[in-house]
Amino acid sequence: MNLLVSSNNTYVLPTIVLLTSICVNNPGNITVYFMYNDLSDENIDKINNLSNSYSNMTINFIYVKNEIFASAPLSARTNSYISVETYFRLAAGELLPKNIDKVLYLDTDIVVNGDISEFYNHVFSESSIALVCEDYGLKIANKLKKEVYHNLNLNAGHIYFNAGVMLINLALLRKKFGLSEFLDFINLYHGHLIFHDQDVMNKMFEFNLEYADYNVYNCRPFFYPFSLRNRQLINRAKIIHYGEKPWNSSFSDMAGELFWKYALVSGFQDEEIEFKKRNNEYMKKNKVQLEIKKLKRNLKLTYLRNIRGIK
């Protein structure tokens, strides 16, 4: 399995948790291509230590110059700031070894909670650049969806995907798009990119996509009503992609315990103790507001799922 991640000093803890979760649930050989710009020697050593803990994992670091994406927007209405690392995957075709024809890209706010070999071993059609999952957030936000489709001139029948989980057909990607074409697109659509590089890929890969079940392979807890049934559904997902970050003291969503399950395996016992302390304080202080927030979310999502037929 070839895996692609990009991260920085701020996201070292969740990145290590992600890689640990993959190794725990996928015993085959895993080669990680780790794109970075802002990563200290100390943190590189921490990440490299995973190779000592899991003999089936090899990690290759790829330094990416920030200047490559100097013209890319790092703010938008949906996100006041993102790191430049989110754009690094656009350089995968050029920076990864040429003998690799397939790679699985994963965001670092993810845990892999099962065997994902079936997803990884997907056989692409001749015209498919990526196997992806529909973006549930845009699926339920009609007004925003219309704006995104208008900004990018997307076909009405296009299924907008979330770029946090992508099995990329590098062989076809290299034939169709070079890094310069991505950069030209960013410059052309600079003021219209609401979801950054995700918008770029949705437009450029528009007619070259295949889809997997997001409930299994890109399960996003904050788009499910709070219920025991949905907690169980999320716990059974193979790939869980967090919205609220389970390492932040203000985390109040579902499936946080799964993140900390793998964090403990990763050796973050002290971090878990500190998180529980701060999180308990936050939950007590904001109990009423959080209950109201849960009620509003349940009403909204239940309406969308049942009345409008969105599943």
Question: Would you summarize the structure shown here?
Answer:
The chain is of the alpha/beta class and 311 residues long.
- How many beta-strand elements? 9
Total of DSSP H or I helical runs spanning 4+ residues: 14
Report the span from N to C terminus: 31 Å
Shape: globular
- Low-confidence regions: none
CA-atom Rg in angstroms:
19 Å
The largest pleated sheet is described as:
7 strands, mixed
Strand order of the largest sheet: 3-2-1-4-7-6-8
Query: Portion of residues in helices?
Result: 40-55%
Query: Strand-and-helix sequence, N→C?
Result: EHEHEHEEHEHHEHHHEHHEHHH
What's the overall average pLDDT, rounded?
94
> In percent terms, what proportion of residues is strand?
15-25%
Q: What structural category arises from helix and sheet content? A: alpha/beta
